[in-house]
TrEMBL record:
Keywords: Cytoplasm, Methyltransferase, Nucleus, Transferase
The keyword Transferase appears for this protein: yes
EC number(s) given by UniProt: 2.1.1.60
A Gene Ontology BP annotation from the UniProt entry: methylation
UniProt name for this protein: Calmodulin-lysine N-methyltransferase
Annotated GO MF terms: calmodulin-lysine N-methyltransferase activity
A GO CC annotation given for this chain: cytoplasm
Organismal lineage: Eukaryota, Viridiplantae, Streptophyta, Embryophyta, Tracheophyta
Keyword Cell membrane: no
Top-level enzyme category: transferase
Subcellular location per the Swiss-Prot or TrEMBL entry: Cytoplasm; Nucleus
Length: 194
Protein backbone atom coordinates (compact mmCIF):
# COMPACT_ATOMS: atom_id res chain seq x y z
CA UNK A 1 0.00 0.00 0.00
CA UNK A 2 2.93 2.35 0.75
CA UNK A 3 4.21 1.99 -2.84
CA UNK A 4 0.87 3.08 -4.25
CA UNK A 5 0.88 6.25 -2.17
CA UNK A 6 4.29 7.23 -3.49
CA UNK A 7 3.54 6.72 -7.18
CA UNK A 8 5.49 8.98 -9.49
CA UNK A 9 3.72 11.71 -11.43
CA UNK A 10 4.71 10.03 -14.70
CA UNK A 11 2.97 6.79 -13.64
CA UNK A 12 -0.13 8.74 -12.77
CA UNK A 13 -0.07 10.47 -16.17
CA UNK A 14 0.06 7.06 -17.85
CA UNK A 15 -3.01 6.06 -15.77
CA UNK A 16 -4.82 9.15 -17.02
CA UNK A 17 -3.97 8.26 -20.62
CA UNK A 18 -4.99 4.63 -20.07
CA UNK A 19 -8.31 5.73 -18.57
CA UNK A 20 -8.96 8.07 -21.51
CA UNK A 21 -8.13 5.43 -24.12
CA UNK A 22 -10.16 2.72 -22.42
CA UNK A 23 -13.15 5.00 -22.00
CA UNK A 24 -13.15 5.65 -25.77
CA UNK A 25 -12.93 1.99 -26.74
CA UNK A 26 -15.41 0.37 -24.36
CA UNK A 27 -17.63 1.22 -21.42
CA UNK A 28 -16.09 0.51 -17.99
CA UNK A 29 -16.98 -2.74 -16.26
CA UNK A 30 -19.31 -1.68 -13.44
CA UNK A 31 -18.47 -4.84 -11.52
CA UNK A 32 -14.83 -3.84 -11.18
CA UNK A 33 -15.70 -0.28 -10.20
CA UNK A 34 -18.14 -1.43 -7.53
CA UNK A 35 -15.62 -3.92 -6.17
CA UNK A 36 -12.95 -1.22 -6.00
CA UNK A 37 -15.30 1.18 -4.23
CA UNK A 38 -16.47 -1.44 -1.73
CA UNK A 39 -13.09 -3.02 -1.09
CA UNK A 40 -10.96 0.15 -0.91
CA UNK A 41 -13.26 3.19 -0.87
CA UNK A 42 -10.76 5.54 0.78
CA UNK A 43 -7.86 4.37 -1.40
CA UNK A 44 -9.96 4.87 -4.54
CA UNK A 45 -10.92 8.42 -3.50
CA UNK A 46 -7.30 9.33 -2.70
CA UNK A 47 -6.05 7.78 -5.93
CA UNK A 48 -8.68 9.68 -7.94
CA UNK A 49 -7.74 12.97 -6.24
CA UNK A 50 -4.06 12.43 -7.01
CA UNK A 51 -4.75 11.51 -10.65
CA UNK A 52 -6.95 14.59 -11.09
CA UNK A 53 -4.20 16.82 -9.66
CA UNK A 54 -1.52 15.62 -12.06
CA UNK A 55 -0.87 18.18 -14.74
CA UNK A 56 0.42 17.66 -18.26
CA UNK A 57 2.01 21.07 -17.95
CA UNK A 58 5.21 22.05 -16.25
CA UNK A 59 5.41 25.10 -14.06
CA UNK A 60 5.61 28.44 -15.83
CA UNK A 61 9.37 28.23 -16.00
CA UNK A 62 11.78 30.82 -14.72
CA UNK A 63 10.19 33.84 -16.40
CA UNK A 64 13.54 34.72 -17.98
CA UNK A 65 11.63 36.00 -20.99
CA UNK A 66 8.35 37.45 -19.74
CA UNK A 67 5.24 36.33 -21.59
CA UNK A 68 1.49 36.68 -21.46
CA UNK A 69 -1.46 35.34 -23.42
CA UNK A 70 -2.96 37.80 -25.88
CA UNK A 71 -6.73 38.04 -25.92
CA UNK A 72 -7.14 39.64 -29.31
CA UNK A 73 -10.44 39.73 -31.18
CA UNK A 74 -8.82 38.85 -34.50
CA UNK A 75 -7.08 35.78 -33.09
CA UNK A 76 -10.29 34.50 -31.56
CA UNK A 77 -11.84 34.08 -35.01
CA UNK A 78 -9.20 31.45 -35.82
CA UNK A 79 -8.99 32.40 -39.51
CA UNK A 80 -5.22 32.04 -39.32
CA UNK A 81 -5.29 28.22 -39.25
CA UNK A 82 -4.99 27.85 -35.49
CA UNK A 83 -7.59 25.94 -33.50
CA UNK A 84 -9.66 26.73 -30.43
CA UNK A 85 -7.02 24.84 -28.45
CA UNK A 86 -4.39 27.43 -29.42
CA UNK A 87 -3.58 30.82 -27.96
CA UNK A 88 -1.36 33.73 -29.03
CA UNK A 89 1.43 34.36 -26.56
CA UNK A 90 3.46 37.57 -26.48
CA UNK A 91 7.10 37.28 -25.39
CA UNK A 92 8.85 40.50 -24.40
CA UNK A 93 12.59 40.16 -24.91
CA UNK A 94 14.45 41.72 -21.98
CA UNK A 95 16.81 43.89 -24.03
CA UNK A 96 16.34 47.49 -25.20
CA UNK A 97 14.92 47.89 -28.68
CA UNK A 98 14.12 44.20 -29.17
CA UNK A 99 10.82 43.35 -30.81
CA UNK A 100 8.10 41.42 -29.07
CA UNK A 101 7.54 37.88 -30.32
CA UNK A 102 4.00 36.60 -30.88
CA UNK A 103 3.83 32.80 -30.99
CA UNK A 104 0.88 30.44 -31.30
CA UNK A 105 0.89 27.82 -28.57
CA UNK A 106 -1.43 25.22 -27.11
CA UNK A 107 -3.71 26.44 -24.32
CA UNK A 108 -2.36 25.33 -20.93
CA UNK A 109 -5.37 23.31 -19.86
CA UNK A 110 -6.13 21.66 -23.17
CA UNK A 111 -5.08 18.21 -24.32
CA UNK A 112 -6.70 16.14 -27.00
CA UNK A 113 -6.44 12.47 -27.83
CA UNK A 114 -6.05 13.36 -31.52
CA UNK A 115 -2.59 14.65 -30.56
CA UNK A 116 -1.65 11.11 -29.55
CA UNK A 117 -3.22 9.64 -32.70
CA UNK A 118 -1.04 11.91 -34.85
CA UNK A 119 2.00 10.94 -32.79
CA UNK A 120 1.26 7.27 -33.36
CA UNK A 121 0.65 7.78 -37.09
CA UNK A 122 4.01 9.54 -37.61
CA UNK A 123 5.92 7.63 -34.89
CA UNK A 124 6.82 10.86 -33.09
CA UNK A 125 6.23 12.26 -29.63
CA UNK A 126 4.17 15.27 -28.64
CA UNK A 127 6.45 16.87 -26.06
CA UNK A 128 6.90 19.98 -28.19
CA UNK A 129 3.16 20.46 -28.31
CA UNK A 130 2.52 20.13 -24.58
CA UNK A 131 3.85 23.51 -23.50
CA UNK A 132 6.72 25.94 -23.74
CA UNK A 133 9.15 24.02 -21.54
CA UNK A 134 11.36 25.84 -19.00
CA UNK A 135 14.43 24.51 -20.83
CA UNK A 136 13.28 26.36 -23.96
CA UNK A 137 13.01 29.53 -21.89
CA UNK A 138 16.54 29.00 -20.52
CA UNK A 139 17.99 28.28 -23.99
CA UNK A 140 16.30 31.38 -25.44
CA UNK A 141 17.67 33.52 -22.60
CA UNK A 142 21.17 32.06 -23.07
CA UNK A 143 21.04 32.82 -26.81
CA UNK A 144 19.87 36.35 -26.07
CA UNK A 145 22.65 36.84 -23.51
CA UNK A 146 25.29 35.56 -25.95
CA UNK A 147 23.99 37.12 -29.15
CA UNK A 148 27.51 37.78 -30.44
CA UNK A 149 28.21 34.05 -31.01
CA UNK A 150 25.51 33.97 -33.70
CA UNK A 151 26.88 36.88 -35.76
CA UNK A 152 27.07 35.91 -39.45
CA UNK A 153 26.26 32.27 -38.61
CA UNK A 154 23.64 29.93 -40.03
CA UNK A 155 21.63 28.44 -37.16
CA UNK A 156 19.30 25.46 -37.10
CA UNK A 157 17.14 24.56 -34.12
CA UNK A 158 16.27 20.86 -34.24
CA UNK A 159 13.29 19.56 -32.26
CA UNK A 160 12.35 23.13 -31.51
CA UNK A 161 8.97 22.71 -29.90
CA UNK A 162 7.39 26.14 -30.23
CA UNK A 163 10.75 27.50 -31.42
CA UNK A 164 11.23 30.25 -28.87
CA UNK A 165 15.04 30.01 -28.95
CA UNK A 166 15.12 30.07 -32.76
CA UNK A 167 12.78 33.05 -32.93
CA UNK A 168 14.87 34.88 -30.31
CA UNK A 169 18.00 34.28 -32.39
CA UNK A 170 16.23 35.47 -35.56
CA UNK A 171 14.80 38.58 -33.87
CA UNK A 172 17.66 39.75 -31.68
CA UNK A 173 20.96 38.57 -33.16
CA UNK A 174 22.85 39.10 -36.39
CA UNK A 175 22.61 35.48 -37.54
CA UNK A 176 22.70 35.24 -41.33
CA UNK A 177 20.03 32.52 -41.40
CA UNK A 178 17.83 30.74 -38.84
CA UNK A 179 15.99 27.49 -39.53
CA UNK A 180 13.48 26.24 -36.96
CA UNK A 181 12.36 22.62 -37.24
CA UNK A 182 10.42 19.93 -35.41
CA UNK A 183 9.34 16.42 -36.35
CA UNK A 184 5.74 16.89 -35.22
CA UNK A 185 3.56 18.38 -38.00
CA UNK A 186 1.25 20.00 -35.42
CA UNK A 187 4.21 21.85 -33.89
CA UNK A 188 5.37 22.93 -37.35
CA UNK A 189 1.86 24.28 -38.02
CA UNK A 190 2.14 26.43 -34.87
CA UNK A 191 5.57 27.68 -35.96
CA UNK A 192 4.24 28.61 -39.40
CA UNK A 193 1.54 30.80 -37.83
CA UNK A 194 4.16 33.29 -36.61
Amino acid sequence: MENRRNEKASSLRWKILRRALLSRSSPPDPGNLIFTHIQFPRFHEQSQMIINRISRRTTHGFNLIPSHVIDDELGSNKHDGSSARDARVCYTLPIPGAPQLFLTQRVDNCADLSDFEICNRYNIDNTGLVCNWPSEDVLAHYCLSHADIFRSKKVIELGSGYGLAGFVIAAATEASEVVISDGNPQVVDCILLV
